[in-house]
Specification:
Elements: H1 2-22, E1 26-32, H2 37-50, E2 63-68, H3 79-88, H4 123-131, E3 134-142, H5 146-152, H6 161-170, E4 175-179, H7 186-194, E5 198-201, H8 204-209, E6 215-219, H9 238-249, E7 256-262, H10 264-270, H11 274-298, E8 301-305, E9 310-311, E10 315-316, H12 330-334, H13 344-352, H14 359-367, H15 373-379, H16 401-410, E11 415-416, E12 422-423, E13 427-432, E14 441-444, H17 445-455, H18 462-470, E15 472-473, H19 474-477, E16 482-489, E17 492-499, E18 502-507, E19 512-515, E20 518-521, E21 527-529, E22 534-537, H20 541-545
Parallel strand pairs: 1-7, 1-8, 2-14, 3-4, 3-7, 4-6, 5-6
Antiparallel strand pairs: 2-13, 8-13, 9-12, 10-11, 15-22, 16-17, 17-18, 18-19, 19-20, 21-22
Helix pairs in contact: 2-11, 3-5, 3-17, 9-11, 10-11, 13-16
Amino acid sequence: MKRTVLFNILILFALATFAQTNDVKNVILMITDGTSTSLLSAARWYKTYHNPQENYLYIDPYITGLTRTHSSDAPIGDSAPTTSCYMTGQPSQTGFVSTYPVKTDHDLVPVDATRAYQPLTTLLEAAKRLQGKSTGLVVTCEFPHATPADCAAHSYNRSKYGIIAPQMVHNKVDVLIGGGTACIRPSDSLFLKENGYALYYDDYAGMKQCHKAPMWALYNRYSMPYDMERDPEKYPSLAEMTQKALDLLSSDPDGFFLMIEGSKVDWASHDNDAKSAITDFLAFDEAFHVAQQFAEKNGHTLIVVVPDHGNSALTIGNTKSNHGYDKLSLQQIMEPLDSYKISTATMSSKMKEVETDQWPALFKEYFNIDLQDAEIEYLQTASDYKKSPIAKEQRKNNLSLTKMLSQVIYGRTYFGFTTFGHTAEDVFTAMYHPKGREMRGVHTNIELHQYIRGQMGLADDALEQLTHDNFADYREVFEGFTCTIDSLGPYEYRLTVKNKKNTLVADSYTNYVTFNKKKQELASVIIYFPVNKTFYLPKELRNLLLAK
C-alpha cells in the first residue's frame, strides 16, 4: 500500500513537472540596449509631464529585480559578450559574439583556455533545433549588430558583419525586422528567396501586407531612425514591428523564440543625448505593452526584459542644480526637451555640411537655442569637423562634434551624465510569466540564462551538447584525412576534405556541405575564424567520409 501511494505521488510529481515546463511555449526576450535604471525615471517623468494621467511606464508592474551583467574579464560590459551570456550562459569578452572567451589573468568567471574561440549554441538556435520553434528578431539597429548577432551568429569580432550576416541568413531566422539593407549580400537575398522568404527592403507598405512567415523586412542601409525622427509613413514603430512579428510567429503550433531590442537607446546614451534616449525608451515601453497584451491573451508566453548593460548614467540633476534642486518644477526640467526636434547625431551631420556662420540658424531651428560665440569657438575644435579653421593636428585629441554638441545643448538643462561609455551598475529586470513564476531579486547574467532555459524546458546540458556536436574543431572531426583551407575572397573560406574517393567541401557561414558533388543541408551553420584559422562544424560529418 505504501509503495503504491509513493508510486502515485511520484507520478503526480512527474506530471506536475511536465506541466510546468509546458506552461511556456513562447519566449519573448526584450533587451533595451545600454539602459541605466535612472533612464526609467527620466522617461516616466517625461511621460508624466506630457500627460499627468499617465504617470507610469507599461513595464512598471512587471519589474522583478536586478541583474548583474558583466563580461568574462571586466565589470563594465560590452554589448556583444553581455547579451552572449543571456543567450549561451557563458560570459565572454569584448567583441565576442556567442563565442567562448580567451583566458586572461583577470577573469571574473572560470574560463577554460582550451576552448578559446569556440562558437557557443544560443537559446534561439536551441529553440529551433531541439524544439522546432519559429524564431524572430526585431531591432532598430542594423541586423548584424552585436545584440541580434548574439542570438543567431558567432564571431570573435562584432564588427565583422561579413562573417555575421550570412550566418543569420543561413540560420534561417523566420522573421527579422530591422535595419541593414547594406549588410545583406545579393547571394544571401537569393538564398532567402529560394527558401520561401518574403523580402521587403525599404518597403513598409509591403511588410504590412505580409501575413505569413518566413519574412525579412529591412529599412535603411544601416540603422533605422531614432523614434523622435521617424517618418511614420516610411518606418514602423518598434511596437508595430513587435506586433507584426507576433502575428507571423504565433501561428507555429510548436511556439516561438523572439528577441526584441530597443537598440538605439544605447546609441543616444553614448552621445549623452537625453531626449533621444528617453523617446526611444518610451518607444520600447510601447513595444513591451504590445508583447504583454499578447502574452496575457495567449496564456503560454514568457516575457523577460533586461538591458545588456548600463550606459552614461543619465541623471535628473547636475551641477547646474546644485543649489535649489528641490525647488525645480517638472516643467522647468522637462520643457526644454520639447524644443529639441532632432537627435544630436543628426544635428552634427547637418553642422558638418556647412560653415560655422550657419550654425546659429540651425540651433535656433532645431533646438530653439541662441548659440553663443564662445560655443561656436568650442564646437569648431571638434576632431571630426572638416571645415574647421583650426588645423586638424590641434584637434585630433578632442571629442567628436556629436559629443561636444551634447555638452552645449544639455549644459543648458538639468540633465547630467557621468560618461560617454558603458557603466557597471546592475540593470533592472522585468518579467511576465503565465503562471506567475517570475525570477525575483538580484541575480547574475548566468542565472538569468539558466532561468530562461529552464522555463523553455531545455535540459541543463542541452546547449552544451549542441555546441559539442555542431561546433567541433575540424582537425578533430577529420583527423587522419587530408584537409585544405582556401580563401575565396573577403569573408569566404572553403574547407576541402578528402578520404580515398570521397570529397567533402564546406563553405564558411553556410548551412550545407557538398559531398561528392551533392549538396547536403545541415542543422547548424559552419563557422570559420581567421583569427585561429579554424573551421567549426558538426562531428557527424566524419561519417560521410567513412562511407564506402
